Amino acid sequence: MKRITTLALGVASAAVLAVSAHAEAALDSMVGKWKWQDFTVECSKGGDHGLSCKVVAGPKNVGMEMIMSPIKTEGGAFVGKVKHPANGQVYNTKMTQPDKDSWKLDGCTDDGACATGTFVRVK
Fold it and tell me: How far apart, in whole angstroms, are the C-alpha atoms of residue 117 and residue 90?
């Protein structure tokens, strides 16, 4: 019985590591420069939450960090608190990747203001 339990724990641990590795690989696909309306955002590994996305060009908020919480996987998407590049408000955001060169963000503030947008990779 002890061997079965040890084997089961080993299989479960391997599954968690595989999911974590997959999530990290998917987050790696956020690394790069992205365009949304008049804003350019650059994302890199690191920062306070493991991923840093800063506004590097635009009509305002240049230099602003957008990632305000760790990014977690949930139901096939990524979720976290993200600052809106135009208004600086923090949104509870769901991020999906329709293709390798775009990310769709949907979210709402705690006060109920909602926004959506698609960030396209700058080539």
Answer: 14
